[in-house]
Amino acid sequence: MIQLDRQDSVFTLTMDAGENRWNTTFVREFGKALDEVEASTGPAALVTRSTDAKFFSNGLDLDWVQDPDAHPEGGDREVFGGEFMALMGRIITLPVPTICAINGHAFGAGFMSALCHDIRIMREDRGFICANEMQIGLKIPSPELALFRHKLPANAFFETVQFARRWTGPDAQAAGVVQHVAALETLPELAHQLAEQMAPLGANRELFGDQKERLFGENAILNSPHGAAHLLKHSADYS
Amino acid sequence: MIQLDRQDSVFTLTMDAGENRWNTTFVREFGKALDEVEASTGPAALVTRSTDAKFFSNGLDLDWVQDPDAHPEGGDREVFGGEFMALMGRIITLPVPTICAINGHAFGAGFMSALCHDIRIMREDRGFICANEMQIGLKIPSPELALFRHKLPANAFFETVQFARRWTGPDAQAAGVVQHVAALETLPELAHQLAEQMAPLGANRELFGDQKERLFGENAILNSPHGAAHLLKHSADYS
Amino acid sequence: MIQLDRQDSVFTLTMDAGENRWNTTFVREFGKALDEVEASTGPAALVTRSTDAKFFSNGLDLDWVQDPDAHPEGGDREVFGGEFMALMGRIITLPVPTICAINGHAFGAGFMSALCHDIRIMREDRGFICANEMQIGLKIPSPELALFRHKLPANAFFETVQFARRWTGPDAQAAGVVQHVAALETLPELAHQLAEQMAPLGANRELFGDQKERLFGENAILNSPHGAAHLLKHSADYS
């Protein structure tokens, strides 16, 4: 379902469950792979990828969500919401660089997981990334809204959450939703190269992770009621 | 002054008062058209347009602002500020998709009204959108600053409010201020097509409108002192 | 070290200390030039430039930081942090338009100083702007993080602070980090032209400076817990 491989400083997390839909079992397997990354020391970066020909991750495991008893392999339905969101929170603050190789569709929870990574590379010719809740009549939870808001420019954010825009690779790149596009064949190699380049930043996990916490964590400095000028003028109070 | 037409799921609000300058009468007529949109049910989207050859909306009705007694058709001067701002707040949270067809200049209050719509299409070859307060020596009210900040990327926001930048269609599109540009002849058709596409999202007004309230309303989740990671990790507290 | 010249409405602040590295002496000389700009009246704009062939400003004066006693010309080491940050806070709220002509590398504190200006023009063919703290293992102070966050779109912000991205001129322009690029030979002329165009906005320093305070100062309106719709609907409370 989830494999983790290591080649020198680059960890590769491979999602290998078809459409890679999220249920509690999938969340926990993903979490175990992160445990292994976090237990390592030295330069490190994580690449997340999918083996499917068409999907990066197609969202929640809806069959299981609607009838968990009929799909016991999906795990405990009750704890899913909290555990999934917490895993996303863990990815966004992972103390090593994270690169997401989006080889195909990434919808809903799949898009969220991609966005929690530091850098996104998307297939240039096919596939959409989309937060499709409005389209299918679901409320977007507030933590998910906050994720989109903190990762996307204001205009791309609004189109994403309010109109369920289906971003192609080139459009997503132009709007700042992904950083790179690539042909399907070169996507894995580019992701690996970027991970190798970034891995030295992961060597100092305390520094690299602490800053992510300051950006995205509790009482994030970015969300202070005061603006940059005030903080600069009173820097002793805001180290 | 303001006409509202309906063709299947698409409402078209036509401003037909020359430069379409804002006074209390104009605000109230605009509001009546919104009443009609909001009283409808089923799939719906709103297109706002102007009949003028050169102007979408050229800002406040300055003649009336400076001498309301000489222009009684403009209505009650005392209540204008609050009613205008409240109308803008109503547009930005309208529970159906809103598309603005900017056929010509949109200055000051005209730019504000365009920005309160969900999607903007601008004529590609002529016309400027501009918040010209700094240029003419006026203070931008804080709610207007907040509107620009919540709708524009940080860099486009600053140029808009501090330097009264006159955005052309192509520049506005590149900066994320408008989503589309079109030739003058095709602008109405494109606006109508987009409205037809988006109208199904308006069928569920409670969902579609509630999310706008959560984005732009009281204690908006985006403005929490906490960042995305904290909200994700404590999602039970921030549904 | 720092020269200030005036030609009609355009002040030009020239950094003439090689790599223009920041120590307390440099901060105070820069501040004296700002005193002179602020003491003027009438239309005014500031251009900041460097005489070095390769560097705009290469960051902190590290030799002095590490051994201030061996470099007494750098001034009082103890007060540096607070005085530098306060100077940045002063630039970002300077009540006249400020244009930064980035002729070469701008690293760390050099990038901060550029970003505190209103408008940036960058050499198109060579030179990087970069916040290199993560690269060299230093914590970015929170006021600096806030500065980047308030000036850059969300995606450019994250790459800048978390990955110490070295922005070229064209990439920086595409991402909204600088507003213009130019050939090295035309950079000074373009900066001067922009300053001349913008100088009239500086004539009303109270208005122009007050708005910068409202954007970037204490309890900045942009950082209200409420969104734009709420502020618009309750505009009487948020003038």
TrEMBL record, chains A, B, C:
Pfam families: ECH_1
Highest rank taxon of the organism: Bacteria
Any one Gene Ontology BP term: fatty acid beta-oxidation
Molecular function as annotated in GO: delta(3)-delta(2)-enoyl-CoA isomerase activity
Name of the protein in question: Enoyl-CoA hydratase
